[in-house]
Hints:
alpha+beta; Transcriptional Co-activator pc4, Chain A; four-stranded antiparallel beta sheet; 4 helices; 8 strands; 28% helix; globular
Amino acid sequence: MLAAYAMTLSFAKKVEIDFRGYRRRRVGDPNDDNMLDVHIAVSVEEFAAQVDSVFVVMELASLLNSLRTLYGSLGASVDFVSQREHFRLHLAGDGLGHITCSGAICSDAGRNRAQFAFEFDQTELRAAISQLEKVIPTFPDRTDNQTLQATAATPRR
């Protein structure tokens, strides 16, 4: 893991995703260059589970757009599955301002899986959107080869 940034995305303070930084140094591979180390913690009533995982930068913009749609309509739903399937999230609005959140986290080997479900008010969704709006510019898509070439061409001292 590279630099730690301490950025968190939270859903009603029950699902928290800490973005810890890019997984690897930039090498020019669109997949490897855009992997983020994350720590996911779920705490619902007596249930608690956590797992370290990897998200891909490009997944975040899609998640943000879906959350904005849900917030605007209140009757939409959002499905998010991380690339390595360590984390699944489903949010569904009832059209009246109530959001149902369900999902699962699983171990790296996939042998252990924990499912969760809870409800929260639509007003709490705005906080998650705001947090994600801060996370995305902190971890930009690093597939721009011109920037990589310029970095590689810079003499080292």
